[in-house]
Design a protein that fits this description.
By secondary structure, the protein is an alpha/beta fold. The protein has 13 helices and 15 strands. The strands form 3 sheets. It has a 7-stranded mixed β-sheet, sandwiched between helices. Strands 13-12-9-10-11-14 form a 6-stranded mixed β-sheet.
Length: 425
């Protein structure tokens, strides 16, 4: 098969992986190193060989955006036996290659026979990733003596780490495995000044994880960069800067924080903590925030933030967003269409607490006792998620802070989907 019509270029690290004859290859890399580009190029080269080739992403939407659309644009129509199937995201080449994009979040639809190559992307974000690999996907390769390329960016010590470890092991059971770890800076197309910018905007742990491909422990405190000594001191409202109010739409407690963004700094002035308000929790929180501002004589602009899930209407009344629009009819609402990932919200807050280069951009007034308690006490569970069970009063008011900070200072987007600092990469 001639690939003259398709531009195929690999940088040194990608060539190292591509030339490996290991049956199972695991690539752990920093953001924008080029792991998906490597999988795209390997996909193109498979079109000249008969058999089934699957690209598997965490979700169908990610598979379509990350690989299907750019790959379909690359493949010449002359290579295809028929038009691509857009709904199923399938292409059949004239040489007999049946290429498909699949989703790991529906493992019941992954069962099949005769797959000769798997390209598994963003593996760290697969739900039940190890069981999907060992119970569903790996058995498909047995009859074809097939191969797999598994790629991702670290997400604490989860299933991506487990497979990466196999590639580093000297145990003969894993002789068919090989793994690599590449930093974003290893890619020649990444500008060093942009990485320096990320060091100034991100907390140290997140920078190491996202750009240095470092497996970081996610146990212990979620907001590890926060301390009373560095971040708690009196806050006064600046009459020349809009007030920001961020809500977490919980029933008990209903919470909100009131503050201001001044340049790169986030200043939290007051908090709202309402209990036992039942179905009127959101309205009660909104009225409490309104009263605090009225008592302070605030007459300036107000920007509102919160969970996008609050758009949904309720069987017993209007949506949370509609309720707040009644309480603050003059406010400008800055709520995204989709909820940010929990770890991205936590990373955004940690980055305001302390950036990689040691700057502090968060100030919390001592009056915000519940928020301070959250920032000191919220921890990750064994799965790397926020522990919401041990103390049901925790996480809510820090969630409100996270919605605000994430909207103003979004971290690196995950999986190539969404907005974030990564737009320049």
């Amino acid at each position: 098969m001639s690939t003259d019509a398709v531009r195929l270029r690999l940088h040194r690290g990608q060539r190292t992986v591509h030339r490996s004859r290991a049956r199972y290859r695991v690539v752990v890399s920093g953001r924008r190193w080029g792991k998906t580009e490597l999988e795209k190029i390997e996909s193109v080269q498979e079109f000249g060989t008969p058999g089934k080739v699957w690209y598997v992403a965490p979700t169908y939407d990610m598979g379509r955006e990350i690989l299907w659309e750019p790959l379909r644009a690359m493949i010449p129509r002359a290579w295809l036996a028929k038009d691509p199937h857009e709904t199923r995201m399938e292409m059949l080449s004239i040489w007999g290659c049946h290429f498909s994009v699949k989703s790991a979040d529906r493992p019941d639809r992954l069962r099949g026979r005769g797959v000769r190559k798997l390209l598994m992307d963003e593996f760290q974000d697969w739900d039940r990733g190890m069981s999907v690999w060992e119970e569903v996907l790996q058995p498909m390769l047995l009859t074809t003596n097939g191969t797999a390329l598994i790629a991702g960016t670290p997400k604490h010590f989860n299933h991506l780490y487990d497979l990466w470890q196999r590639g580093q092991s000297t145990d003969t059971r894993y002789a068919a495995w090989h793994s690599w770890q590449f930093k974003t800076a290893d890619a020649p197309h990444i500008a060093q000044d942009m990485l320096n910018q990320m060091r100034q905007e991100m907390d140290a742990r997140t920078f190491r994880q996202e750009f240095e491909a470092s497996f970081e422990g996610m146990s212990g405190r979620a907001y590890y960069a926060f301390s009373r000594a560095a971040h708690v001191r009196p806050v006064q409202l600046d009459p020349h800067v809009p007030v920001c109010i961020a809500f977490d739409f919980n029933i008990n407690p209903a919470t909100a924080i009131i503050g201001q963004r001044v340049g790169q700094e986030v200043r939290v002035w007051r908090e709202v903590w309402v209990t036992h308000a039942g179905g009127e929790a959101t309205r009660a929180a909104g009225m409490a925030a309104l009263q605090l501002l009225a008592a302070a004589g605030w007459r300036g602009p107000v920007h509102g933030y919160g969970d996008p899930a609050g758009r949904a209407g309720k069987t017993t009344g209007p949506s949370d967003h509609a309720v707040l629009a009644q309480v603050f009819p003059y406010a400008s609402w800055r709520i995204p269409k989709a909820a940010p990932h929990v770890r991205d919200r936590v990373s955004a807050v940690n980055a305001r607490c302390e950036t990689h280069d040691g700057k502090h951009w968060l100030t919390v007034d001592p009056a915000c006792e519940h928020l301070i308690g959250d920032l000191e006490q919220v921890v990750f569970d064994d799965n790397g998620e926020l522990n919401k069970r041990s103390n049901p009063l925790l996480t809510h008011i820090s969630d409100a802070l996270g919605y605000w900070v994430h909207q103003e200072f979004p971290p690196v987007a995950r999986g190539g989907v969404g907005v974030g600092f990564s737009s320049w990469l």
